[in-house]
Amino acid sequence: MTKPQTLGLPAGYAEWLTQLKNRIAQARQRATLAVNAELVSLYGQIGREILARQAEQGWGAKVIDRLAHDLKDAFPDMRGFSTRNLKYMAYFAEHCPEGLIGQQPAAQLPWFHIVTLLTKLIDPAEREPVGRVSVA
């Protein structure tokens, strides 16, 4: 593909094009962050539901395996429903019930980073927001 000629372009075209490119890039970034926030919220909800069903109904590993299989079948174009990831969702729900890691909502982090932090920061105090005041 050849680059279009720049001769004969109206005054201000190059600056306008630069502005458009920046706005498009920013919109794409906001869209990515919004999708990520929704997925993290969904994963937290799924994790809470898994924990509740495990507590109420005694779900074991085989039910989680089956759930992973059924979700993959229902959404073949989506990733993230492996047995391991479902267990991470439950772990996330259990260890970060408020959805916070450090000072920011976990939804601002990619899921892989959340899982990495959860598995590397074993001490819950390291995951807590700095300066958090508990209300008793």
Shape annotation = elongated
Rg result: 22 Å
Helix percent band:
55-70%
Mean pLDDT: 83
Protein architecture, described:
The protein has 136 residues and is mostly helical. It has one domain. It has five helices and two strands. The chain has helices spanning 13-57, 61-74, 83-95, 111-120, 124-127; strands at residues 100-101, 104-105. A two-stranded antiparallel sheet has the order 1-2. Strand 1 and strand 2 form a beta hairpin. Helix 1 packs across helix 3. The chain is elongated. The chain starts with 12 loop residues before the first helix and ends in a 9-residue tail after the last helix.
Quick recap of the structure?
With 136 residues, the protein is mainly α. It contains 5 helices and 2 strands, in the order H-H-H-E-E-H-H.
Essential attributes:
mainly alpha, 2 strands, 136 residues, two-stranded antiparallel sheet, elongated
